[in-house]
Design a protein that fits this description.
Length: 53
């Protein structure tokens, strides 16, 4: 048992699922696009790049 976890449990993999989304949004932002609504779908990215229809 893990002394620091609830009921002796230990997490295994929560952290790796948190990194990709902020990294992708930061990459979009570095392109100069302002996508403020999440999720950053392809449609929203194209809308930010080309303007609203």
């Amino acid at each position: 048992p893990y002394a620091h976890g609830p009921f002796g449990a230990k997490g295994v993999g929560e952290l790796p699922i948190d990194g990709p989304a902020p990294a992708i949004v930061n990459a979009i932002r570095q392109l100069g696009l302002d996508v403020r609504a999440l999720p950053a779908t392809p449609e929203r990215i194209m809308e930010a790049a080309c303007g609203s229809p």
